[in-house]
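USER:
I would value a second opinion on how I read folds in token form. Give me a protein, with the fold worked out from its sequence. Write it directly below this note and I will take it from there.

ASSISTANT:
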Amino acid sequence: MNATATQRVEEIFSSLGREEKVTIISHGVALRLTELHKRIDMAESRIHQLEEKYGQTLEQLESDTLPNDADYEMYEDYVMWHHWVKTVEDLRERIISLGEIAQQGLYLGESFSAGR
């Protein structure tokens, strides 16, 4: 979305009543948390696949260091493994941040539980 369109959306949103804003935010948080949980599940699945493949966690692999005879595939997996671990960490932080909004019970004043 370009800057002009973003500004127009912000103007329209600002013109809405409080209850409508709260409803939109609450529903948006719920949808976003659901999406983030799906992404974290996928990333954790990739990590689990690598743990199964190598019979250890990334932490264990790093404590032993990569074997001297590691092939290209193992190095590639190692890089991707780090990517997936970092992705899970980042997603957890985002989920915590959005969870704080959800915990406020924004959904029309009711207790609100979003996510899975």
Q: What stands out?
A: The radius of gyration is 21 Å.
